[in-house]
Write a structure and sequence with these properties.
282 residues; alpha/beta; seven-stranded parallel beta sheet; 7 strands; 44% helix; binds nicotinamide-adenine-dinucleotide
Length: 282
Amino acid sequence: MPLDAGPVRDGGPMPSPADFAGHVALVTGAARGIGRATALRLHRGGAAVACLDRDAPVLAGLVNQITAEGGRALALGCDVSRDVEVAEAVGRVVRDFGRLDAVHANAGIQRYGTALDVTEAQWQEVMDCNVKSAFLTARHSLPHLIATGRGAIVITASAQGFAAQRNVVHYSTSKAALVGLTRALAVDHAAQGVRVNCVCPGSVDTPMLRAAADRFGRDRPDGVQGLLAEWGRAHPLGHLCAPEEVAEVVAFLLSERAAFITGAAVSVDGGLIARLGAALPE
Ligand SMILES: NC(=O)c1ccc[n+]([C@@H]2O[C@H](COP(=O)([O-])OP(=O)(O)OC[C@H]3O[C@@H](n4cnc5c(N)ncnc54)[C@H](O)[C@@H]3O)[C@@H](O)[C@H]2O)c1
């Protein structure tokens, strides 16, 4: 069958980039970094935003900011690796806001180690916070996304879903699993009108990255700033990514402008994965 055998759809006028008016969004890991940037981007696009994070005090500041800007937001302190807490949080969102249209399953942690030193408990912590959390967020959101008839999920994976660094065996594995989860969810729920994609960032200037720079850069002659600059130069575009640059891609994938995109792993990595290793001969 030719690939273009289906009926041609008239999608009508494309919505504007700011068109989340009347939508309800849920963002996990919203207290800081990429999740915070997405929550603000979706709010500024007109969505009511449910902000989930286990750091409830920091979440409260974000929700105050959104409210002060005239938006609607809900702070829900919860551990998204725990089924009962995610179920309760999603239930609260639908009770308070009446529906759910867009979900950014973004919460995650970075840990270090090789197969020789990562313990079973450390392995499990990373799998729970990075993979199980996205599964649970999708699982509890899906019935509501299906009910809207136009739901969308974006998962934050990583460039490390495609290429491994040294000393992050559990983190790298978890990010590859999220690419697989994205594809499986996309295939299972396409016919129910739910699109599922993931973003795969390179190095993003967030508290997570700063913590890594503090850990590995503090004894360098050029210090933490020198290491951050070096990580930036590792990307062909020559600098670190801003959280807002990831949020913009997440917003696009969650919007109707991405109506025919599902199951995709979208790189937001300044060309990191596109380039062959610098040590190879020209
Ligand atoms: N920063 C980067 O360079 C980078 C690159 C690629 C992918 N990512 C991924 O992007 C996502 C966000 O990263 P970030 O850099 O913004 O991190 P961050 O540490 O700055 O923020 C992550 C937030 O998630 C929350 N969180 C973590 N585990 C949680 C849990 N179980 N329940 C509830 N909240 C939880 C934290 O409290 C924190 O507020 C993560 O999945 C990370 O792996 C980050």
